[in-house]
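Board notes (copied after class):
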Amino acid sequence: MDLETIALIAMGGCLFLWLVVNFIITLHNVRKAKAAGLTVQVQCEKCGTIYEVTGKEATRPAMIKYKKSSRTHISNGAFVNTQKYSHYAKKFYCPCCDKKTYGKVLDIQELQYEGQDSTIKELGKGFLRMVIGCTIILILAQIPLQIGKKQREREVQQMKEQQYEDLKNKADNRN
């Protein structure tokens, strides 16, 4: 394989790896931003106890059951799909039952609206990070591609000179 092929394969691998890593970082930052300074009121579906959980615990992946309806409306010239939850429950540790049970999140609509701004900001930062990283990778990939291009040009020039010398020698031998 020549230098350019290796550079293209390496560039493709680096771009793919960067996109995957950036996606993971962005999801982690979105979850962290949603949980910052957040307290959630939960009502145990088994015993009816109302208790509070931290934002970190509320945004942790867990089993969820919900009923929702969605509505699309126009907001600032864009179609926005908003979801309204009539029931949203997640498994939390209930202090009264002393085990993990489904707890109904009481203020899900308010939490949803509070989390939208931080989510949009983090997604914007993640997109910017992705564009900058991909641009840097593409610029760095140009170095070996340019080296390979100059090497090919030198080889072509040497072949032309060799052909010229061969033709000149044949012409001299005929005379």
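Comment from the instructor: The first strand starts at residue 39 and ends at 44. The longest helix spans residues 108-174.
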